[in-house]
Design goal:
With 228 residues, the chain is α/β, with parallel strands linked by helices. 21% of the residues lie in helices and 32% in strands. The two termini are 40 Å apart.
Length: 228
């Protein structure tokens, strides 16, 4: 936050560029005049420099930042002008760092990965996710606390998100199950016609919906790899 007795524009060098902190409540022309004074001292150092314009975390000044950025590019030939990068919440940052520090090679996961055909009468269960590189025949039962991913034909019965996790998904290269259930939401009698699309089931508005995987991208919401 910029105090009343602070100058309306401050400039400091950061890496290969400059960080401008300004008071967005001041008139735009006043801010431009202050920028002229500061950047005229830089001379050739401003050319192609990266510039960050920081309004002190105050929202609603995108147009002002755009105008000042265009002004600096035209008058002083600066390079890229941007706002400060968004700060992730402390809790999210700690989780991310913990995940990075933990590494991948020695983590003991409760994810179950199987290779081969799951035959009629077989029952496969896992506390978290299940990945099967093979087919699931009619009469087979798959139960997982998280997601179920079948790298083959899914022709059996699958319960993902067991017992009450409606955010889980069921994905298969050939999606033709006899019945699917996600959390407490079940669906039977799904279209069993073979398609050329990779499909998945998820819960939307308390209904199990089957969608094209490439079109909906259910895992696109995840910001980074997570140990599961």
């Amino acid at each position: 936050m910029i105090l009343d007795n602070d100058p309306p524009v401050k400039l400091k060098g950061v890496g290969d560029g400059f960080w401008i902190t300004l008071d967005p409540s001041k008139p735009e022309q006043l801010l431009k005049n202050q920028l002229i004074k500061l950047f005229e001292r830089l001379k050739h150092l401003a050319v192609n420099a990266r510039v960050v314009i920081d309004t002190g975390g105050t929202e609603g000044y995108d147009d002002l930042v755009q105008n000042l950025g265009d002004f600096l590019k035209t008058r002083f030939d600066v390079g890229i002008v941007s706002k400060p990068p968004e700060k992730r919440q402390v809790a999210v940052e700690r989780i991310r760092q913990k995940d990075l520090d933990r590494g991948w090679t020695r983590h003991r996961s409760e994810v179950l990965m199987l290779r081969g055909r799951i035959r009629s009468g077989q029952k496969i269960e896992a506390k978290k996710h299940i990945l099967i590189t093979g087919d699931v025949n009619p009469g087979a039962l798959i139960i997982a606390g998280g997601d179920v991913m079948i790298m083959g034909r899914l022709l059996g019965h699958v319960h993902a998100g067991y017992p009450d996790n409606p955010s889980a998904v069921i994905l298969a290269l050939d999606f033709r199950p006899t019945q699917v259930q996600i959390g407490e939401y079940a669906a039977a009698g799904l279209d069993d016609k073979k398609t050329d699309r990779v499909e998945f089931a998820s819960v939307i508005d308390e209904t199990v919906l089957v969608q094209d995987y490439l079109g909906a991208n259910p895992f696109g919401r995840l910001p980074w790899p997570e140990v599961v």
